[in-house]
Design goal:
With about 210 residues, this protein is α/β, with parallel strands linked by helices. It is about 50% helix and about 5% strand. The radius of gyration is 16 Å and the shape is globular. It starts with a strand and ends with a helix.
């Protein structure tokens, strides 16, 4: 199996909604940070990447048809080079809204590793903190100007890199139509999945 869709989709931009939508459309399983938690074989790959080591991307995504969200978004360009026939989807969100959500969800979740016992959950949080907070945002994910600047630069880099016609810029609030048109599939007769709100994220991770 080869990736049929590469998602240049950073966390808190509707990535879980897109994951569920892609799987409903036949592009599943779709890799997401949730997969690192549910599949024990996944974590060592991303820990190696956090250490600056290389991995076999075909091995990482064996059995997957698509990828979205962190940690794959950190390496979307390298992944797309291995799967160049895959179209690219970039999920978008207002930078201020994205920053506010990150402060209530991803960032405190990653920081919570210091209070965890040794084990897979702590290792996942440490990996995420290294790849996202440290390497992507230079340890300044709580700095509004810096973090939103990184976000905007990321979006522009994707736009510059992916040729016209190969990239879908997608707000999950747009629903099925633009996504299905881009992928050349029929629109399902059911509501588009809108999930993993800030409240749901915090409840799931026990963040008060």
């Amino acid at each position: 199996m080869s990736l049929a869709v590469v998602g240049a989709c950073i966390g808190r931009t509707g990535t879980n909604s897109l994951k569920l939508a892609l799987e409903r459309l036949g592009f599943g399983p779709c890799h997401h940070m949730f997969e690192v938690a549910s599949n024990p074989d996944q974590l060592p790959y991303w820990e190696a990447l956090a250490r600056g080591e290389s991995v076999d991307w075909r091995e990482v995504f064996a059995g997957y048809k698509a990828c979205v969200d962190w940690p794959s978004a950190r390496f979307w360009r390298e992944i797309w080079e291995v799967f160049p026939d895959a179209p690219v989807i970039l999920t978008l969100r207002d930078p201020e809204s994205w920053f506010a959500s990150v402060q209530k969800t991803i960032l405190p979740s990653m920081r919570s590793q210091v209070d965890m016992e040794d084990g897979p959950q702590r290792r996942r949080s440490a990996m995420a903190h290294a790849l996202i907070a440290e390497q992507t945002f230079a340890g300044r994910m709580d700095d509004f100007d810096h973090a939103t600047g990184v976000y905007r630069n990321y979006v522009e880099d994707v736009r510059r890199t992916v040729p016209a016609g190969r990239l879908l810029e997608f707000d999950v609030k747009q629903g099925w139509e633009p996504l299905c048109a881009f992928l050349g599939v029929a629109v399902p007769e059911e509501p588009f999945p809108l999930t993993n709100t800030t409240e749901q994220f915090r409840n799931r991770r026990g963040l008060d």
